Fold XRE family transcriptional regulator.
Amino acid sequence: MNYTNQATGALALSIHDVRAAHPNTSIPDGAPFGDFVPYAPATPPAHDPLTQWLVEVTPVDVAGTLTQQWVVVDMTEAEVAAARQARVPHSVTRRQARQALLLAGLLDQVEPAIAAIADPTQRGLASIEWADSQAFERSRPLLIQLASALGLDSAALDNLFIQAAQL
Protein backbone atom coordinates (compact mmCIF):
# COMPACT_ATOMS: atom_id res chain seq x y z
CA MET A 1 0.00 0.00 0.00
CA ASN A 2 1.30 3.44 -0.91
CA TYR A 3 0.70 6.75 0.79
CA THR A 4 0.12 10.25 -0.50
CA ASN A 5 1.21 13.33 1.37
CA GLN A 6 -1.83 15.54 0.95
CA ALA A 7 0.12 18.65 2.01
CA THR A 8 2.84 18.27 -0.65
CA GLY A 9 1.06 16.11 -3.24
CA ALA A 10 3.85 13.52 -3.09
CA LEU A 11 2.74 10.09 -4.33
CA ALA A 12 3.96 6.49 -4.05
CA LEU A 13 5.32 6.91 -0.55
CA SER A 14 5.85 3.74 1.44
CA ILE A 15 5.11 3.23 5.13
CA HIS A 16 8.90 3.45 5.58
CA ASP A 17 8.84 6.96 4.07
CA VAL A 18 6.07 7.97 6.47
CA ARG A 19 7.93 6.51 9.44
CA ALA A 20 11.18 8.19 8.34
CA ALA A 21 9.36 11.54 8.32
CA HIS A 22 8.23 10.85 11.91
CA PRO A 23 11.04 8.80 13.50
CA ASN A 24 9.78 8.99 17.09
CA THR A 25 6.23 7.88 16.31
CA SER A 26 4.73 4.41 16.06
CA ILE A 27 2.65 4.23 12.89
CA PRO A 28 0.89 0.96 12.01
CA ASP A 29 0.88 -0.26 8.40
CA GLY A 30 -2.04 1.11 6.38
CA ALA A 31 -3.02 3.74 8.94
CA PRO A 32 -3.37 7.40 8.01
CA PHE A 33 -1.09 9.77 9.90
CA GLY A 34 -1.31 13.55 9.68
CA ASP A 35 -1.03 14.56 6.03
CA PHE A 36 -0.06 11.00 5.03
CA VAL A 37 -3.03 9.01 3.74
CA PRO A 38 -2.88 5.44 2.40
CA TYR A 39 -4.48 4.63 -0.91
CA ALA A 40 -5.45 1.40 -2.64
CA PRO A 41 -3.51 0.26 -5.69
CA ALA A 42 -5.17 0.24 -9.11
CA THR A 43 -4.19 -1.67 -12.21
CA PRO A 44 -2.43 0.66 -14.65
CA PRO A 45 -4.17 1.12 -18.00
CA ALA A 46 -2.81 -0.53 -21.13
CA HIS A 47 -0.20 1.58 -22.89
CA ASP A 48 2.62 1.29 -25.39
CA PRO A 49 5.87 1.68 -23.41
CA LEU A 50 7.71 2.53 -26.63
CA THR A 51 5.59 5.63 -27.31
CA GLN A 52 3.74 6.46 -24.09
CA TRP A 53 4.49 7.25 -20.45
CA LEU A 54 2.42 5.86 -17.61
CA VAL A 55 2.03 8.61 -15.01
CA GLU A 56 0.60 8.25 -11.52
CA VAL A 57 -1.66 11.16 -10.56
CA THR A 58 -3.50 12.15 -7.39
CA PRO A 59 -5.63 9.32 -5.94
CA VAL A 60 -9.40 9.80 -5.92
CA ASP A 61 -12.21 8.45 -3.79
CA VAL A 62 -13.81 5.44 -5.48
CA ALA A 63 -16.78 4.05 -3.56
CA GLY A 64 -15.38 5.28 -0.26
CA THR A 65 -11.80 4.11 -0.85
CA LEU A 66 -8.95 6.43 -1.83
CA THR A 67 -7.66 4.74 -5.00
CA GLN A 68 -4.56 5.15 -7.13
CA GLN A 69 -5.06 6.82 -10.52
CA TRP A 70 -3.05 6.64 -13.73
CA VAL A 71 -2.95 8.61 -16.97
CA VAL A 72 -1.28 7.67 -20.24
CA VAL A 73 0.76 10.47 -21.82
CA ASP A 74 2.13 10.33 -25.36
CA MET A 75 5.88 10.80 -25.64
CA THR A 76 7.26 13.57 -27.81
CA GLU A 77 9.07 12.55 -30.98
CA ALA A 78 12.39 13.26 -29.23
CA GLU A 79 11.39 11.06 -26.27
CA VAL A 80 10.34 8.23 -28.59
CA ALA A 81 13.68 8.47 -30.41
CA ALA A 82 15.60 8.52 -27.12
CA ALA A 83 13.64 5.56 -25.74
CA ARG A 84 14.25 3.61 -28.93
CA GLN A 85 17.96 4.41 -28.88
CA ALA A 86 18.18 3.33 -25.24
CA ARG A 87 16.83 -0.11 -26.22
CA VAL A 88 19.63 -0.73 -28.74
CA PRO A 89 22.46 -2.65 -27.08
CA HIS A 90 25.98 -1.27 -27.55
CA SER A 91 27.25 -4.74 -28.35
CA VAL A 92 26.15 -8.34 -28.78
CA THR A 93 28.12 -11.56 -28.55
CA ARG A 94 29.41 -13.36 -31.61
CA ARG A 95 26.81 -16.11 -31.09
CA GLN A 96 23.96 -13.61 -30.77
CA ALA A 97 25.06 -11.74 -33.90
CA ARG A 98 25.40 -14.87 -36.00
CA GLN A 99 22.06 -16.26 -34.83
CA ALA A 100 20.29 -12.95 -35.53
CA LEU A 101 21.84 -12.81 -39.00
CA LEU A 102 20.78 -16.42 -39.65
CA LEU A 103 17.20 -15.71 -38.56
CA ALA A 104 17.15 -12.61 -40.77
CA GLY A 105 18.40 -14.66 -43.74
CA LEU A 106 21.61 -12.63 -43.93
CA LEU A 107 24.30 -14.90 -42.47
CA ASP A 108 25.31 -16.40 -45.83
CA GLN A 109 25.69 -12.89 -47.30
CA VAL A 110 28.31 -11.66 -44.80
CA GLU A 111 31.40 -13.33 -46.26
CA PRO A 112 30.53 -12.35 -49.88
CA ALA A 113 30.04 -8.76 -48.64
CA ILE A 114 33.49 -8.87 -47.03
CA ALA A 115 34.99 -10.38 -50.20
CA ALA A 116 33.46 -7.52 -52.22
CA ILE A 117 35.41 -4.84 -50.33
CA ALA A 118 37.72 -3.36 -52.97
CA ASP A 119 40.64 -2.27 -50.78
CA PRO A 120 42.71 -5.35 -49.85
CA THR A 121 43.75 -3.93 -46.47
CA GLN A 122 40.18 -3.04 -45.53
CA ARG A 123 39.01 -6.43 -46.80
CA GLY A 124 41.65 -8.15 -44.63
CA LEU A 125 40.69 -6.10 -41.58
CA ALA A 126 37.03 -6.92 -42.15
CA SER A 127 37.79 -10.61 -42.55
CA ILE A 128 39.77 -10.68 -39.31
CA GLU A 129 37.09 -8.75 -37.46
CA TRP A 130 34.36 -11.11 -38.68
CA ALA A 131 36.38 -14.25 -37.92
CA ASP A 132 37.93 -13.26 -34.61
CA SER A 133 35.59 -10.86 -32.79
CA GLN A 134 34.03 -12.23 -29.61
CA ALA A 135 31.53 -9.36 -29.60
CA PHE A 136 30.19 -6.96 -32.21
CA GLU A 137 29.83 -3.28 -31.32
CA ARG A 138 26.95 -1.33 -32.87
CA SER A 139 29.06 1.80 -33.43
CA ARG A 140 31.99 0.16 -35.27
CA PRO A 141 32.43 1.82 -38.69
CA LEU A 142 33.26 -1.52 -40.33
CA LEU A 143 30.10 -3.10 -38.94
CA ILE A 144 28.04 -0.18 -40.23
CA GLN A 145 29.72 -0.54 -43.65
CA LEU A 146 28.94 -4.28 -43.77
CA ALA A 147 25.35 -3.65 -42.66
CA SER A 148 24.94 -1.22 -45.54
CA ALA A 149 26.38 -3.81 -47.95
CA LEU A 150 23.74 -6.24 -46.64
CA GLY A 151 21.00 -3.69 -47.36
CA LEU A 152 20.46 -2.64 -43.74
CA ASP A 153 19.90 1.01 -42.90
CA SER A 154 20.53 2.38 -39.40
CA ALA A 155 17.04 1.49 -38.11
CA ALA A 156 17.26 -2.07 -39.49
CA LEU A 157 20.70 -2.51 -37.90
CA ASP A 158 19.28 -1.27 -34.58
CA ASN A 159 16.46 -3.82 -34.87
CA LEU A 160 18.96 -6.58 -35.64
CA PHE A 161 20.95 -5.69 -32.49
CA ILE A 162 17.77 -5.59 -30.39
CA GLN A 163 16.76 -9.03 -31.70
CA ALA A 164 20.28 -10.41 -31.24
CA ALA A 165 20.37 -9.31 -27.61
CA GLN A 166 17.25 -11.40 -26.96
CA LEU A 167 18.84 -14.62 -28.24
